[in-house]
Amino acid sequence: MNSSQRRYLFSKGIDQYFTDVYKAYRFVIRFFKEVIHPPFHFKEIINQCFELGLKSLPLITLTGFVTGIVFTKQSRPSLAEFGATSWLPSLISIAIVRALGSLVTGLICAGKVGSSIGAELGSMKVTEQIDAMEVSAINPFKYLVSTRVLACTITIPILGLYCGFVALMGSYFSVHKNEATSIVSFFHNGFSTITFLDIFSSLAKSIVFGFTIGMIGCYKGYNATNGTQGVGKAANQAVVLAMFLVFIEEVVIVQMANWIRDY
């Protein structure tokens, strides 16, 4: 491959990148335009909240509980060296409320919910079901995309709060086993260092994560091509991109919260 061919491929890659960015921008703008106009499909939103949110509860419960236990077991020896095991509830509560609860939920939902949405809409796209909805005078974007993005934005913050609570319960059982600490004392010591800003920033992160996961999954599935191979590719890209953006958003929102806290 000579230099001219390399320049051509590089230029083509740059053009394709900016084209994809523009398409994603148009997709997001279209969502905000569609979501404020009737019909609103409340029944479908509730159905998607059940499919995407309630069915994720067992996995979130297990993951959150194990996270609380493991983090407590890993943190206890370090505090024990300084004779500061009494600070364990505060340390665990800060870690879970500020970061782990929302982040773990975002990553789990990016894998489970993002791939599910991408595969479902991708399958409908390649089998021309979306085109059939347009012929039937149904707005497929509003019915398929808007409802799923709203459902993710609503349910993932709730799952994030639930995951944090379950993780704290797992941590309590671990602390109680070693220190015989009562549940009242554990939560009193734990939440003595938690502020409203910590809870608000965690909730804000979960809302942003939910919107991102829903939007990425819908975008990749709605624009899937190349038959069944394209469906698998759309689901895979939805998971990878959603996880990447979740980490980026985590860093940005944490930094913003720290600026507010310092101010």
How do the strands and helices of this protein lay out in sequence?
Blueprint: H1 3-35, H2 42-52, H3 57-81, H4 88-126, H5 129-135, H6 140-179, H7 183-191, H8 196-222, H9 227-262
Helix pairs in contact: 2-6, 3-4, 3-6, 4-6, 4-7, 4-8, 4-9, 6-8, 8-9
Structure description:
This protein is mostly helical and 263 residues long. The protein has one domain. 86% of the residues lie in helices and 0% in strands. The chain has 9 helices and no strands. It has helices at residues 3-35, 42-52, 57-81, 88-126, 129-135, 140-179, 183-191, 196-222, 227-262. The model has no long low-confidence stretch (mean pLDDT 87).
Task: Provide the number of structural domains.
Answer: 1
Shape: globular
User: What's the tally of helices?
Assistant: 9
| Sheet with the most strands, sense and barrel status | none
> Could you tell me how far the N terminus lies from the C terminus, measured between alpha carbons in angstroms?
56 Å
Beta-strand content estimate = under 5%
Mean pLDDT across all amino acids: 87
How many β-strand stretches?
0
Structural class: mainly alpha
What series of H and E elements makes up the topology?
A: HHHHHHHHH
Regarding quaternary structure, what we see is single chain
Amount of helix = over 70%
Low-confidence stretches are none
Q: Calculate Rg over CA atoms.
A: 22 Å
Q: Any descriptors?
A:
263 residues, mainly alpha
Write a brief caption for the model.
By secondary structure, the protein is mostly helical. Helices cover 86% and strands 0% of the residues.
